[in-house]
Amino acid sequence: MRPWSDEDQLFIQIISRGEFAVNGFRNRDLFQYLFPNAALSVEEKQSNAARVTRKLCLLRAHGIIQKVPQLFSILQVY
């Protein structure tokens, strides 16, 4: 991740939103904020979802976020 790039700053701002503080977030939740254009092809959706997943994996590896056990949600670590 490059926190000084516009794309990564937007990503960090989105996961820091208060609505995700209690229940966490899923890839699908972030996808609707990062890629609001609903007219994407199936291949573009898969590619963009993979980009979000990769960023989530990087944040988990650095201990910034953690997975909620037995749920498909992730919480931000403060």
What does this structure look like?
By secondary structure, the protein is mainly alpha-helical. It has one domain (6-76). 49% of the residues lie in helices and 8% in strands. The chain is built from 3 helices and 2 strands. A hairpin with a 6-residue loop joins β1 (65-67) and β2 (74-76). α2 (27-34) crosses α3 (42-61). The relative contact order is 0.17.
Mean pLDDT: 84
| Backbone shape | globular
Q: Major sheet: size, sense and barrel closure?
A: 2 strands, antiparallel
Q: Terminal Cα separation, in Å? A: 18 Å
Give, in spatial order, the strands making up the sheet with the most strands: 1-2
Radius of gyration: 12 Å
* Low-confidence blocks of residues: none
Note the beta-strand portion: 5-15%
* Helicity range: 40-55%
* Number of helical elements: 3
- Number of DSSP-assigned strands: 2
Task: Give the H and E element order.
Answer: HHHEE
Structural class of the helix and strand makeup? mainly alpha
Give the count of structural domains: 1
Keywords:
2 strands; 49% helix; 3 helices; 78 residues
Offer a quick outline of the entry.
This protein has 78 residues and is mainly alpha-helical. The protein has helices at 6-15, 27-34, 42-61; strands at residues 65-67, 74-76.
Secondary structure: elements and pairs:
Layout: H1 6-15, H2 27-34, H3 42-61, E1 65-67, E2 74-76
Antiparallel strand pairs: 1-2
